């Protein structure tokens, strides 16, 4: 009997300890927020600096993401156009195309005669009337070639191109979508740039928060000393400061999201106008919900990291006198 | 309760603060620590409060060797001590209640326990009813009593007081000393650094005297 009551007692004590611990965390969470709101100018400026740094990285990211979505739709293909020499007439061109259709490395072939090309150009370019004024058709006969499965084999593609160039009827050869490939290479570099700028600005967020917490620690030196003298552990003392760092990062992350969203809203209309001019159904990409959550987590995580590093070092230095 | 064995403390820039100091304090004993300014009183208290470490010798507190105690263990050992300062060292942006509650919050006491113990401590120093006041709205004597309440709220085994009556008039000083005697009677060891010679003689407790870092009378 006695043993049982004793056990219940320790269980209860443990529960009370846990309750006190959680209460302490809750107190740290809200009192640090209260403290920030009591010095609105100072905290506001810090948060603004952090928000601008985060928004800078975020804007760069979303711009690159938007361009990537644009170029991503463009299928890089190795379709080539063989432009035939001027003296080759349509019948000769068609004959050459028929011959090439049996080529083992060619998947598909299409002959576009100069007359057909002229009609298509008139229909699509909007220069219809002006083109009628031309005495003769300046367009060449073209054979469009889609090579077989050599999309990712640069050398095979080059060899095929070389072969076509050697032909006496061919004026020059062009890989139609090569520019897409080049643009995508540029976008890969831009993507890497986003990562680098992100890391750099991440450092900025860490150091700015760390420095803010360092100043805060100095302002509240007495409190730290007295807490130490009544037996507070470092974990206890640094808790409210860590929460302050968390709030700085969290609010800055949210503000950065607001900044990015507002900027996108501002450019949305002109972008739509531009995309309309190209007959494109381009939709401006905003930060998704998961990206928004990630942004908040990274901002508050880095801020806590910066605060923790400073506290870890400074609390050992601060000795009560 | 407390034992110093051939303790030396040398500061790199200020030289020897304590030279070969040895003494013991029994559980429930009350003693005064006196000496001129710079005789080493504060250094001796700092060694007990683990704010400094001695250069040579040993310091034992409650059966534990605290001479070269690890940084991580210090907070837990400090919870056995009640520290009282000449300048009170209260947090002026917190109420009397919050000031006194600090050692309990730090030690992770439950809400109900904190409220009960803080009231009991404030009752002992006759400040019940002033929980919601802020330290700066109190008189010097009242502020010192808040400091004492904070020192005893955790039921420490030992109380260290550094010039606790330094800023108080004789009547208030006598009152504070009377409180210390009450704590002693319930088994708390009390060590008071002071140079109020008249007070010491009137109360007639044990006196430890420091002179230029050496312990004279014991």
From TrEMBL, chain A:
- Which sequence ranges form a coiled-coil region, renumbered to this chain? none
What range(s) does the FtsX extracellular domain occupy?
Answer: 79-173
* InterPro entries referenced in this protein's UniProt entry, alphabetically: ABC3_permease_C, FtsX, FtsX_ECD, FtsX_proteobact-type
Q: How does it sit in the membrane?
A: Multi-pass membrane protein
Q: List where in the cell it is found.
A: Cell inner membrane
Q: Which residues cross the membrane?
A: 45-64, 189-210, 246-267, 287-311
Q: Which Pfam families match?
A: FtsX, FtsX_ECD
Q: Which domain of life is it from?
A: Bacteria
Q: What is its main location?
A: membrane
* Residues in ABC3 transporter permease C-terminal domain copies: 197-311
List the keywords (alphabetical): Cell cycle, Cell division, Cell inner membrane, Cell membrane, Membrane, Transmembrane, Transmembrane helix
Task: Say what the protein does.
Answer: Part of the ABC transporter FtsEX involved in cellular division.
Query: What family does this belong to?
Result: Belongs to the ABC-4 integral membrane protein family. FtsX subfamily.
Subunit comment for this entry? Forms a membrane-associated complex with FtsE.
Q: What is this protein called?
A: Cell division protein FtsX
Biological source species: Methylomonas rivi
Starting at the broadest rank, the lineage of the source organism is: Bacteria, Pseudomonadati, Pseudomonadota, Gammaproteobacteria, Methylococcales
Gene that codes for this?
ftsX
From TrEMBL, chain B:
For the ABC transporter domain, which residue ranges apply? 2-218
The membrane topology term of the UniProt record is:
Peripheral membrane protein
Q: InterPro entries, alphabetically?
A: AAA+_ATPase, ABC_transporter-like_ATP-bd, ABC_transporter-like_CS, ABC_transpr_LolD-like, Cell_div_FtsE, P-loop_NTPase
Q: Is RNA-binding among the key words of this record?
A: no
Molecular function per GO: ATP binding
The record's section on SUPFAM superfamilies has: P-loop containing nucleoside triphosphate hydrolases
Q: Where in the cell is it found?
A: Cell inner membrane; Cell membrane
Q: Which UniProt keywords apply?
A: ATP-binding, Cell cycle, Cell division, Cell membrane, Membrane, Nucleotide-binding
* Purpose of the protein: Part of the ABC transporter FtsEX involved in cellular division. Important for assembly or stability of the septal ring.
Q: How does it assemble?
A: Homodimer. Forms a membrane-associated complex with FtsX.
**What family does this chain come from, according to its entry?**
Belongs to the ABC transporter superfamily.
UniProt name for this protein? Cell division ATP-binding protein FtsE
Gene name linked to the record:
ftsE
């Amino acid at each position: 009997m006695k043993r049982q009551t004793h056990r219940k007692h320790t269980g209860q004590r443990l529960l009370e300890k846990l309750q006190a611990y959680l209460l302490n965390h809750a107190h740290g969470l809200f009192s640090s927020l209260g403290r920030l709101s009591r010095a609105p100018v100072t905290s506001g400026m810090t948060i603004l600096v952090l928000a601008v740094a985060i928004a800078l990285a975020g804007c760069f990211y979303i711009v690159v993401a938007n361009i990537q979505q644009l170029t991503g739709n463009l299928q890089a293909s190795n379709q080539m156009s063989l432009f035939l020499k001027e003296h080759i007439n349509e019948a000769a061109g068609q004959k050459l195309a028929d011959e090439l259709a049996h080529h083992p490395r060619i998947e598909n072939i299409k002959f576009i005669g100069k007359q057909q090309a002229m009609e298509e150009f008139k229909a699509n370019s909007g220069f219809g009337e002006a083109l009628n004024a031309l005495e003769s058709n300046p367009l060449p006969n073209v054979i469009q070639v889609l090579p077989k499965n050599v999309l990712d084999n640069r050398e095979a593609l080059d060899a095929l191109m070389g072969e076509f160039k050697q032909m006496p009827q061919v004026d020059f050869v062009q890989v139609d979508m090569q520019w897409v490939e080049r643009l995508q290479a540029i976008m890969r570099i831009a993507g890497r740039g986003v990562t680098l700028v992100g890391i750099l600005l991440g450092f900025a967020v860490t150091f700015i928060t760390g420095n803010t917490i360092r100043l805060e620690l100095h302002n509240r030196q007495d409190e730290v000393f007295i807490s130490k003298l009544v037996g507070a552990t470092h974990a206890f003392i640094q808790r409210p400061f860590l929460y302050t760092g968390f709030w700085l990062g969290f609010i800055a992350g949210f503000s950065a999201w607001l900044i990015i969203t507002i900027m996108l809203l501002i450019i949305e209309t002109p972008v739509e106008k531009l995309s309309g001019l190209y007959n494109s159904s381009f939709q401006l990409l905003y930060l998704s919900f998961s990206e928004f959550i990630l942004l908040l987590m990274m901002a508050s995580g880095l801020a806590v990291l910066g605060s923790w590093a400073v506290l870890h070092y400074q609390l050992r230095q601060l000795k009560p006198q | 309760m407390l034992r110093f064995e051939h303790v030396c403390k040398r500061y790199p820039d200020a030289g020897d603060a304590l030279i070969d100091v040895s003494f013991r304090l029994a559980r429930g004993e009350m003693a005064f620590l006196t000496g001129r300014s710079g005789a080493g009183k504060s250094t001796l208290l700092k060694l007990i409060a683990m704010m400094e470490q001695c250069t040579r010798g040993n310091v034992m507190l409650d059966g534990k060797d605290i001479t070269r105690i690890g940084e991580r263990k210090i907070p837990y050992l400090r919870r056995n001590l009640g520290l009282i300062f000449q300048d009170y060292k209260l947090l002026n942006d917190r109420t009397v209640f919050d000031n006194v509650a600090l050692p309990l919050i730090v030690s992770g006491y439950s809400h109900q326990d904190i409220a009960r113990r803080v009231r009991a401590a404030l009752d002992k120093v006759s400040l019940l009813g002033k929980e919601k006041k802020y330290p700066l709205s109190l008189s010097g004597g009242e502020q010192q009593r808040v400091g004492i309440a904070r020192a005893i709220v955790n039921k420490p085994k030992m109380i260290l007081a550094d010039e606790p009556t330094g800023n108080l008039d004789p009547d208030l000083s006598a009152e504070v000393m009377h409180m210390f005697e009450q704590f002693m009677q319930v088994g708390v060891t009390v060590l008071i650094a002071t140079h109020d010679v008249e007070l010491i003689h009137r109360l007639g407790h044990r006196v430890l005297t420091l002179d230029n870092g050496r312990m004279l009378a014991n």
